[in-house]
Amino acid sequence: MSLLPLFIGGTGRCGTTVLGRTLSLHRDIFTIPFESRFIVDPHGVVNLVQALSINWDQYHGHYAVLKFKELMKELYPSKLRYLYKIGAGKIYPKLHIAPPRYYFTIDGKWKDEEFFDYKTQPFSVLISRDKFEILLKELLSKIIIREYAGYWQGYSTEIGPRMYVTRRFEYREILKITRQFVEGIMVEAANRFNARIIVDHTPTNINHVLFLKDLFPEMKFIHIYRDPRDVVSSFKRHAWGGNSAQDAVPIIKGTLMKWEEEKKNMPRESYLEIALEDLVKDKESVLKRICDFLGIGFDVNMLKMDLSKSHSGRWKRDLSKEEIELVERELGWFMKEKGYQFSE
């Protein structure tokens, strides 16, 4: 396709959303106004491809299809279930109960349009339900050979269980089939907003960059990073990020180490690394660099984005002396490589 997919990734709490929102103001770019996640999340496209090729057996094939179908229902739920998710997403965390899966909404303006609407499922911004279901039906018809009433022993308690018969695909073959599904969603969204580039800013893209390159050989990837101490400081304010540096550091370290290893196998022209601090300090210069990387002209509309709330240095008041020492000991190699100053 002539459409160029751009994936943004990072450790999380490092500026992926800020960068995606900024790029969305470019006349040729449409940024998905939420973390789509369905490609790289558990039971998403990446797991489906692996289970039907390199990891295939009859059980993994069945289970991957079952969970993928469940995930697709969560992406585009009924209006009633969507409203339930919104309410539960606000109430459950206060009761220390995990919220429903994929309860996300869309906040603020993206590409100068207000998308937020309690009555509208987020995925409807990208593609209509009818077209989404057509694409999904086409995908499933290509990977399911037979379906029958049955169950695996010791699987789970379920009313009316179904079994899915699949076969082992060659890796490139199943990649092509799943690409058609993802591409169909992207093209529909790009056509709606007259875009040449579509951006997915799911942070965990960084953990699957080689798979994304296999899926879309023409794709571009941007790793946006931030002072690891500020990342840890931000992690501590979220339920998924841990309550201390001891909880957060292994996650951040694992992500950065995997990226350092995988980028060795990425063509140099396919990825770009930028610091959030540089984007805030010298917005125009960094955005021009990104435009050159993407092969498009600079658009001054991107300078409208207010980056003043992207604070740096919060770690100085949020982290204890012991936590700062831990971060600098475990992630000092990254700080040194990127030019971050160590504490005294």
The CA-CA distance between the termini, in Å, is 52 Å
Question: Residue ranges: pLDDT <50 for 5 or more in a row?
Answer: none
Strand order within the widest sheet? 2-7-1-8-9
How much is the radius of gyration in Å? 21 Å
Query: Any idea what the shape is?
Result: globular
Tell me the number of strands: 9
User: What is the average of the pLDDT values?
Assistant: 94
β-sheet strand percentage: 5-15%
Report the sheet with the most strands, covering strand number, pairing sense and barrel closure. 5 strands, parallel
Topology as a string of helices (H) and strands (E): EHEHHHEEHEEHEHEHHEHHHH
Q: Which percent bin holds the helix content?
A: 40-55%
Structural class: alpha/beta
H/I helix tally: 13
Put the structure in a nutshell.
The chain is an alpha/beta fold.
Structure description:
- With 344 residues, this protein is an alpha/beta fold.
- It has a domain at 32-193.
- The chain contains 13 helices and nine strands.
- The protein has a five-stranded parallel sheet with strand order 2-7-1-8-9, with helices on both faces. A two-stranded antiparallel ribbon has the order 3-4. The chain has a two-stranded antiparallel sheet with strand order 5-6.
- α5 (129-143) packs antiparallel against α6 (171-192).
- It is globular.
- The mean pLDDT is 94.
